[in-house]
Design brief:
The chain is of the alpha/beta class. The protein has two domains: 6-30 and 298-405, Aspartate Aminotransferase, domain 1 (Alpha-Beta Complex), CATH 3.90.1150.10; 42-295, 3-Layer(aba) Sandwich (Aspartate Aminotransferase, domain 2). Helix content is 40%, strand content 17%. The chain has helices at residues 6-10, 38-51, 61-81, 95-110, 129-138, 155-161, 184-193, 213-216, 241-246, 281-297, 299-318, 345-354, 367-372, 389-405, and strands at residues 19-20, 23-24, 26-27, 89-92, 116-120, 141-145, 166-172, 197-201, 220-224, 235-239, 257-260, 265-267, 323-326, 335-340, 357-358, 360-362, 378-382. Strands 4-10-9-8-7-5-6 form a seven-stranded mixed sheet, sandwiched between helices. Strands 13-14-17-16 form a four-stranded antiparallel sheet, with helices on one face. A two-stranded antiparallel ribbon has the order 1-2. The protein is globular, with a radius of gyration of 22 Å. The two termini are 36 Å apart. It binds 4'-deoxy-4'-aminopyridoxal-5'-phosphate. Residues 32, 94-96, 124, 126-127, 172, 176, 201, 203-204, 224, 365 line the site of 4'-deoxy-4'-aminopyridoxal-5'-phosphate (PMP).
Length: 406
């Protein structure tokens, strides 16, 4: 990409200047969490050093200013995902909490005995376990949508599994383990035709793909700030207004109430009904800085650069003898999971770490997917906008060295 200045972008991520084991850091664990850009760090710093106060309950200057900034992030997320209203954007701790919120409010209230919840083999544990917990409670059934050998959701199997017992379909948009981009728009349409609602786990896609909840017509969508250069401990749940309104509250406490008496409590409206207690104020405020930063580069440019890195890395890694890439979907984002004959991923990860290269090894919170491919674990390199082809070369050299050592 000629007009892409990755060196300039790297300057926005101070952690890239550090060393690990006396080697320059090569950070290839972006699917787990991205590094933080200077505007995010500055927003956190500003809040804690000059503007710290609780929001929503104060008439004093700092409380009012904090409230305005907190609500500005909500509007910013509304625009980012094209939500109909800002109050359909609920702040949570992250994708995990967003999914748990839907499972323990919507699903617990509306699922009936015998209903089915369809989930794909590609799902992260946080999009499996909350559904299993509620299914057990209400007598519903969790049904797996299989994937093919490329790591794509089997669309024929999906169509066959849809029937009038299916109440909820929940899948990720992009798989954290394999990078598969799922055709969620078509899958949502099919779910609706079968009378089910569709939950999108957008943890991996929010910083790689343009998301328009109205165009997708998804019923719920969840993502985490820390995978888009923002702080940890902050996430988003988007929901259709009609559904959010009929759901019971998630947690009880301050802010989510209207009137409390010992006889009866009435609840606040959206979004506060789902935001009990003091939230991660600084984190939410800094999330806006992350979104502004992404938009200052442009999602299209980010996507194009990451795709170039993916193609380059796929070609280079494929040339290594004994290395098998797991997940070769036609539509893929910048995640490469692989195994190496005769080498355990844990050892590969540890030896790469000694060379300053951070990759993730293990089951990536997707044990059913590992089982599908008959492997206990993979080594995963995941690229972000600040990674370079030189870093890919270093990864390849590091793997070759590691292989020789093992
Ligand atoms: N879903 C997917 C696809 C993910 O990649 C992750 C994070 N690895 C999660 C859910 C859970 O996100 P968090 O830990 O931020 O709640």
């Amino acid at each position: 990409m000629d007009n892409f200045d990755v060196a300039k972008i790297r300057k926005d991520f101070p952690e890239l200047e550090r060393t690990v084991h006396e080697k320059p850091l090569i950070y290839l664990d972006n699917a787990a969490s991205t590094l933080k850009c200077t505007p995010v760090i500055e927003a956190l710093n500003l809040h804690y050093s000059h503007e710290a106060a609780n929001i929503h309950r104060g008439v004093h200057y700092l409380s009012e200013m904090g409230t305005v900034k907190y609500e500005e992030t909500r509007k910013c997320i509304q625009k980012l995902i094209n939500s109909e209203n800002d109050y359909q954007v609920i702040f949570t701790k992250g994708t995990t909490e967003s999914l748990n919120l839907i499972a323990s409010t919507y699903a617990r209230k509306f699922l009936k005995k015998g209903d089915q919840i369809l989930l794909s083999t590609l799902e992260h544990h946080s999009n499996i376990v909350p559904w299993q917990m509620v299914a057990e409670e209400v007598g519903a059934e969790v049904v797996e949508i299989p994937v093919n050998d490329l790591g794509e959701i089997d669309q024929d199997a999906y169509k066959n599994l849809l029937n009038d017992r299916v109440a909820i379909v929940s899948t990720n948009h992009i798989s954290n383990s394999l990078g598969t981009i799922n055709p969620i728009k078509e899958m949502i349409k099919l779910a609706h035709e079968a009378g089910a609602i569709y939950v999108v786990d957008a943890a991996q896609s929010i910083s790689h793909e343009k998301i328009d909840v109205q165009d997708l017509d998804c019923d719920f969508l969840a993502f985490s700030s820390h995978k888009m250069f923002g702080p940890t401990g902050v996430g988003v749940l988007y929901g259709k207004e009609e559904l959010l309104n009929k759901m019971p509250p998630y947690q009880g406490g301050g802010d989510m109430i209207d009137v409390v008496t010992f006889e009866k409590t009435t609840y606040n409206g959206l979004p506060h009904k789902f935001e009990a207690g003091t939230p991660h104020i600084a984190g939410v405020i800094a999330l806006k800085a992350a979104v502004d930063y992404i938009q200052s580069i442009g999602l299209n440019k980010i996507k194009a650069w990451e795709h170039e890195l993916l193609e380059y890395a796929t070609k280079k890694l494929s040339e290594i003898e004994g290395l098998t890439i797991i997940g070769t979907a036609k539509e893929k984002t910048s995640v490469i999971s692989f195994t190496i004959d005769g080498a355990h991923p844990h050892d590969i990860g540890t030896l790469l770490d000694r060379q300053g290269i951070a990759v993730r090894t293990g089951h990536h919170c997707t044990q059913p997917l590992m089982k599908r491919f008959n492997i206990p674990a993979t080594t995963r390199a995941s690229f972000s906008v600040y990674n370079t082809k030189e870093e890919v070369d270093a990864l390849v050299a590091g793997i070759i060295k590691t292989k020789e050592f093992l």
